[in-house]
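Hey L., structure's done. Input below.
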Amino acid sequence: MVDVWDDVPEAKEFCESIARNIEQHKAFAHEELEHFTLGILASTAVDAHHEAFSLGALEQAERTINSGELWMNVMHDPLIQPGGRAIGAKVFYSPRTDTHILAGVAGVYKVEKLPTFADVGITADILAAAESAVQLEPDDKDKVPPLTLGFSPQEIDESVIIDALAHTPPELDIRAERHFRKALDPLTIVSLCASVSFFLRGVSYVLKTPLAEECQRELGKQLVKWLKEHVFPKLFQKKRTLFEFVAEHNGCRVQLVTPAEKPGVLAEAADHAMDGIRSAVAMLDAFKHLEFKKLIYEWDENTKRWYPLHAATAKAGVISNRPQLIAMEQMKGFSLAGSANVEYVASSSDPPSENREPR
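Output:
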């Protein structure tokens, strides 16, 4: 936005006030931030991708940021550790452009001071012991998220997703969710989102009988078979592409991420997704005191295992087993990501209906 600070001086003052009083905004006592960025995170104006946030979405993002729940990714790449966190934000009205803007402040962590998982007590031995003790409570059927295939039409042809959904086994009832990421050269990310219970049991709620348990395992096999036959083969393109399995547990977003470059590697990662989710659940249950908000696992094609890579926590900041130096040019701008629920009707020529929400 051009000259937005001049048009909305109170937005600039809001951001500068946070920066001046940063001690009041620290997430934990020893939090060290290398520098701060002040700017416009998003607006209701239509952007170059012909997309725009609604006022309601900006207000939801404001609440999310001010509750300490939004962490900064570099170019939206989950394989790079979160660069820092959004510290504070507020929605303002710009009379000159007749739009609403979300102004905010973000703090960037010092990469060389980021702890590893072992530094905060999460070792392989402790994690293995915790995995054996994982027990899940029955899900509330009314609150279980549906199986969702997430994608961005800016990154992958929408017809690919429509075709994949047309071959979905009816028992799985998979939906589509349109994602949007603002970046100069966004990588392609396709996500399969489900409840933790589905990844570990094959369904999104607990059934106790032996026959029901066998049905649950069969559903899980159908999902992996569908991914291998109708999703993975469509992801191989010249542009860098990632596939991720996503679930939420104890208020934390868990992402199992693997590059979508080799069909065999993707298939092996899918076969072991349950192992990765179980490991993540064990960590979140055993180390609740860290208050995890985001947890990233990466697939290792050599050992054929999922390993923790990065995490964002309320009590220890960013944790990373492979921190990367981040060029300051990469952290100068702001860019919110979001999602929209999309309902597809395979036999209809009408465009899909949308219900957009911040993510």
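Confidence is low (pLDDT under 50) at residues 203-209, 345-358. The radius of gyration is 21 Å.

-- N.
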